[in-house]
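Hi everyone,

Forwarding the result from last night's run.
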Amino acid sequence: MSLVWREREQLAALAGSTGGAVQLAGAGRAELLSTLSPAVSVTCVPSEQHLPHAALHQVLQPLLGGLSTVSSPRRAALEAALGLAEGVPSVHVVGLAALDLLAGRGVVVVEDAQWLDAESREVLGFVARRLAGSGAVLVVAADVPVFDGVPALCSADDLLHAAEEAAAAGRRDELERILAEVRGRTSPSASARWPRGCRPRSTTAWARARARPS
């Protein structure tokens, strides 16, 4: 896929900002990632998808030297989530602890986020929606966007291809998530969040993908 300069410029502007998050999806994400110089970069793998907080541990492990600076309740929750202490961690409190550790760390990249474990997906989604002004930028790359409420850079053609693959493989949950992404892009309220020109070219193609038997 030929990437437009607008996407590169948007990513560069975010990387140089005071904080935020973006999702990179589709075939062009590797080329966009190559323009970054992350402070932390991790790659999710299928074999750890069922291990609670596995991806979160990857992201935060290089930063755990600063754990003593995190307030006691948040530190205790994060330690429980990462298997460093006993306890049942709260997504909200673990997310706040992660925000404390990530503050001022620059660009953090999570690749192949389609393999995020469920617990890490919850926590990192919580974090991604609260990074403005933190001095940290979270860049999450996946086949399709994995977080709600976090801007994404990807082409409509990439989403259409992903929807057709999900339908052919009978992955109904993934297909519904992709279709929800398209509906969000085409709603008036989404126009300020998504790059211009990222609308599906053929609504009938989307209908065919959704109707394909599983």
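The longest helix spans residues 172-186.

Cheers,
N.
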